[in-house]
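The instructor's notes for this session suggest beginning with a concrete chain rather than abstract definitions. Hand out the sequence below and ask the class to guess, before any prediction is shown, which regions might be ordered.
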Amino acid sequence: MSPRKKVEREATPVSPAAARPVRAAYYYRTAWGSHDEFVALFIKNHWPILRAQKETGRILDVTMEVPRFHGDGRADWDVVVTITWRDWAAIEEHSDPSITSRLFPDREAHAAEERHRFALLEAHWDVPLETVALPEVPARTAGRGSRR
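After discussion, reveal the predicted structure:
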């Protein structure tokens, strides 16, 4: 067998699309009876870290949403957090550990609460969102147009 050659990669310029803000939705499905505790731990332990990254400009916006009604029990999620990142580079880099150390000096307690927060979940997935431009629709002429 011949040794593999190391392939040198040329630096590729950043495309304009890569320099635009990126929205990602983070879906969580909590175990029955754990919803309120999960939300409280998220706000206590993770929101301050996201807020600090927002102050640095890495994150542009953060929202948390929950369904208004209980529903029929078939929902795949019960908490969604949407983060608008500065660009793809921001979404790919890791959070600065000094932020966590500064905000949570008792690292062991913070880590234990974060493990517990994730233990309250049945499922979690991340979905980077791609905006699809919708065409402008010309005004409809009265009396014309299709009806169903």
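Then share the key points. Confidence is low (pLDDT under 50) at residues 1-13. The chain has one domain: 22-127.
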